Amino acid sequence: KAGVTQTPRYLIKTRGQQVTLSCSPISGHRSVSWYQQTPGQGLQFLFEYFSETQRNKGNFPGRFSGRQFSNSRSEMNVSTLELGDSALYLCASSTGANNEKLFFGSGTQLSVL
Amino acid sequence: DAKTTQPPSMDCAEGRAANLPCNHSTISGNEYVYWYRQIHSQGPQYIIHGLKNNETNEMASLIITEDRKSSTLILPHATLRDTAVYYCIVITTLGRLYFGRGTQLTVWP
Predict the structure, then answer these.
(1) pLDDT above 60 (res B2)
(2) Cα B80 to Cα A95: distance, rounded to the nearest angstrom
(3) Which residue has the higher pLDDT, B93 or B10?
(4) Which of A6, A25, A51, A109 could form a disulfide with A105 if both were Cys (CB 3.0 to 4.6 A apart)?
(5) Which residue of A has its CA nearest to B103?
(6) How far is CA A26 from CA A23, A35, A36, in A?
(7) Rounded to whole angstroms, how far apart are CA atoms A108 and A85?
(8) Nearest CB to B96; choose among A58, A90, A102
């Protein structure tokens, strides 16, 4: 079974631009969650989508948004990029059942210049 | 939200047991403890999880104290490939994950 796929692997943007990251979950998984990882803050939960609906949300500004499609693929968008948005963005998929383990992708490394 | 506290770093000799502690004193009765590890530049990898009872799988053992305020991950025979950052995570009843800063485990030959 193919793992969680994130594209692109690396991305360079400038301040003020917007960016869209993509995540394809493991086949059959209906939940996709997103995380931001920085050296200063560690791994932080952004949001989770299940069956095309946002089910949980972390403490991030509205510039961070996401969506999930009917095939469970998910995209994350960051608008008006700031230098502090430079991070590794990870997505994880699961069946969506309670207390189900997560499978992570390798992440997208975003650099904002 | 329940939060976790882990030592920032630990080291262990290859072939010896690595015991990684985690405090989660605010955990609620139905919140699970999960352990993941992250090798540099990769996504976190699931290791084990538990609620009340001790658990064991092919990778590790998880010991949870009776009051559930702390747990220990045990890698019985550490290898160089076990060098990674280990995260102790509590998944809240709302489904949110709090990762904490993790423990950098270094296994030396």
Answers:
(1) no
(2) 32
(3) B10
(4) A6
(5) A42
(6) 10, 17, 20
(7) 12
(8) A58
